[in-house]
Design goal:
two-stranded antiparallel sheet; mainly alpha; 2 strands; 287 residues; Probable_transposase_24; single chain
Length: 287
């Protein structure tokens, strides 16, 4: 057990609980993710055989190594080692850890060391002669060297180096969300947070340029969006104005028809009245 985890147990009186999320390669909580990765690293360095490739752990020589590692690591935490999501997450962490361990072994005991010295010194501590021989055979293979050179060129072409350290992006986003009243950070805020060096007090020139460009792009999108909304609002107002004009026209037409109908009725009444008066005076004259 690592010193940090041991102090946690002494301070709290219980093991650290680890929460796993289906589909995530790491626990969302940064502290849980850090401690789990640390314990996986300790187990890899001290107990796990380092194969030349991950697929080797499915062969008879290595197939018990990963399940045994997960069981051993789970005993140090409050977690269910038989849970499918937990095992998948631990497997991903161990897979990354083994790759890092191969890189450390190669950097320290193989790179820039004459091959005669590599063979004469034998394997590094806690690495079996059999596993070391397979690793050396892989590293001296011309195809492997060619792949390494291509990867080196690709790494040199990376412009935006993140500053989140060993934390995964998932943990970094979760941490920002917790510190921002449980609101998910947008892409631009996260880019700034993950590429800003607190030590230097700034971002790299390339990252700064990309950040400014993202802000410009966002501003352009917002302006285009506002223009689109303004256009939609103008069309809506024009449509409403047309509807109001049409309603007024129909109302006026109804009023005109009503007035015409009333005038016709009044004309009819006046005509009847005139006829009655004419008949009245006709009868008067007859008498």
């Amino acid at each position: 057990m690592g010193h940090g985890l041991e102090k946690y147990v002494q301070r709290t009186g219980h093991k650290m609980h680890i929460s796993f999320t289906d589909g995530k390669r790491r626990p969302l909580d940064p502290t849980q993710a850090s401690k789990l990765a640390s314990e996986c690293g300790i187990h890899i360095r001290n107990h796990l055989r380092v194969a030349t490739h991950w697929k080797m752990y499915k062969t008879n020589d290595y197939k018990k190594a990963i399940p045994a590692a997960i069981t051993s690591i789970a005993e140090k935490f409050d977690m269910n080692a038989n849970d499918e999501v937990a095992r998948a997450t631990c497997t991903n962490i161990i897979k990354d850890g083994i790759r890092q361990q191969r890189y450390r072994l190669k950097s320290k005991y193989f790179n820039n060391v004459p091959i005669s010295e590599v063979l004469s010194k034998g394997p590094p501590p806690r690495v079996s002669p059999e596993d070391w021989a397979k690793l050396v055979e892989k590293w001296t293979d011309p195809k492997h060297k060619e792949t390494c050179e291509k990867n080196k060129i690709n790494r040199e072409q990376v412009k935006f180096h993140q500053t989140t350290g060993s934390r995964s992006y998932v943990c970094a986003i979760h941490s920002m969300k917790v510190n921002n009243n449980d609101q998910e950070p947008d892409a631009i805020d996260f880019f700034k947070e993950s590429h800003f060096s607190k030590k230097k007090g700034s971002m790299s020139d390339d990252a700064q340029e990309a950040y400014v460009q993202e802000l410009r792009d966002q501003l352009r999108v917002e302006k285009d969006d506002n223009a689109r909304k303004q256009h939609q609002l103008t069309e809506q107002l024009e449509c409403q104005q047309q509807e109001i004009t049409e309603l007024k026209r129909k109302h006026q037409e109804e009023m005109d028809n009503l007035k015409k109908s009333q005038d016709e009725k009044m004309d009819g009444l006046r005509k009847k009245q005139d006829e009655m008066e004419a008949m009245f005076w006709f009868f008067i004259r007859q008498q």
